[in-house]
Design brief:
The protein folds into two domains: about 1-45 and about 215-300, Deoxyhypusine synthase (Deoxyhypusine Synthase); about 80-200, Deoxyhypusine Synthase, CATH 3.40.910. Helix 1 packs across helix 13 and helix 7 packs across helix 8. Helix content is about 45%, strand content about 15%. The chain is an alpha/beta fold. It starts with 13 loop residues before the first helix and ends with a helix. The radius of gyration is 20 Å and the shape is globular. It has helices at about 15-25, 25-45, 60-70, 80-90, 105-110, 125-135, 145-155, 165-170, 185-190, 200-215, 225-235, 265-270, 285-300, and strands spanning about 50-55, 75-80, 95-100, 115, 120, 175, 220-225, 240-250, 270-280.
């Protein structure tokens, strides 16, 4: 295949650019083109597609990209962290602000401002509003619910710019394996001191089991590492491995971390099939995911 120059004069939309990325043979550019091609194949061949991601990107405008993917039913299941519940809930009622990586964190703490990368989150936009809203929602959280049920209970009370609203509306399951590792989970624990509330995470595992044993073809759009990534590939081994997968990461491979592990490593564990089309794209998901989503929406 001959390397072709990118002709920006022939770019009318994002997908035009992504298609040229592939032909250009650029380093990450070609990988991005491959990622969209794999994603398109998943959609057109009726894969059950899991989207996994860490909560940090929900604090940014990338939240709107994920919301649109869920609204359009481009993905069919989500595995994420408790912070996604936190940020999606909080941002439905209060603003987050542009900040800088180079702020004085001691001064920010004194002012009641939390820094997430270059995003500033005042206490009233996070802990305070989550405590207030969870105080209203908690009565609907019954003893023995799984995290998918809790996510939907929250979602149906949010506005239509929220990820969880569309997950509830479209009945797309959202699983939070580490539900207590965040403000929403902590609020549930706090209220459990006053009345019996037990979260049944094994109920979630039964639902995941049904998906991985029953669905013929399963794909993954995996953003970042940690528990979100691992939980989908953990279950995938009982399916014989993911049938197709895309992975976006900024982590290095040399430290042996799951975040740094490329998808080819998962083949050795039986978590991605040896015959599966897969690609790892190195880069910032707040740049890459909007490009992928915009391109795939234009294609389908």
């Amino acid at each position: 295949m001959i390397v072709e120059d990118i002709d920006i004069n022939r770019v009318e939309n994002v997908d035009d650019l992504i298609r040229q990325f592939y032909k250009a043979g650029g380093f990450t550019a070609k990988k991005l083109g491959e990622a969209v091609d794999i994603f398109e194949e998943m959609i057109r061949h009726d894969y059950y597609i899991f989207l996994t991601f860490p909560a940090c990107i929900v604090a940014t405008g990338t939240r709107g990209v994920i919301k649109e993917m869920v609204k359009r039913k481009i993905v069919h299941g989500i595995i994420t962290t408790c912070g996604t519940l936190d940020h999606d809930l909080a941002r439905s009622f209060k603003p987050y602000y542009h900040g800088t990586f180079f702020a004085d964190d001691t001064k920010l703490h004194e002012k009641g401002i939390n820094r997430l990368g270059n995003i500033f989150i005042p206490n009233e936009s996070y802990g305070t509003i989550i405590e207030e809203k969870m105080g209203e929602i908690i009565e609907s959280i019954r003893d023995g619910m799984g995290t998918r049920e809790i996510a939907w209970e929250i979602g149906k009370r949010l506005s239509n710019d929220a990820i969880l609203y569309w997950a509830w509306k479209n009945k797309i399951p959202v699983y939070i394996p580490a539900i207590t590792d965040g403000a929403v989970g902590w609020q549930i624990w706090m209220h459990s001191q006053e009345r019996k509330i037990k979260i049944d995470i094994l109920k979630d595992e039964k639902e995941l089991s049904d998906i991985f044993f029953e669905k013929e073809k399963i794909g993954g759009v995996i953003i970042g590492g940690g528990v979100s990534k691992h939980h989908v590939i953990w279950w995938a081994q009982f399916h014989g491995g993911l049938d197709k997968a895309i992975y976006i990461t900024t982590a290095s491979e040399w430290d042996g971390s799951l975040s740094g592990a490329r998808l080819r490593e998962a083949i050795s564990w039986g978590k991605v099939k040896s015959t599966a089309k897969h690609i790892t794209v190195e880069g910032d998901a707040t740049v890459l995911l909007p490009l992928i989503a915009a391109s795939i929406i234009q294609r389908i």
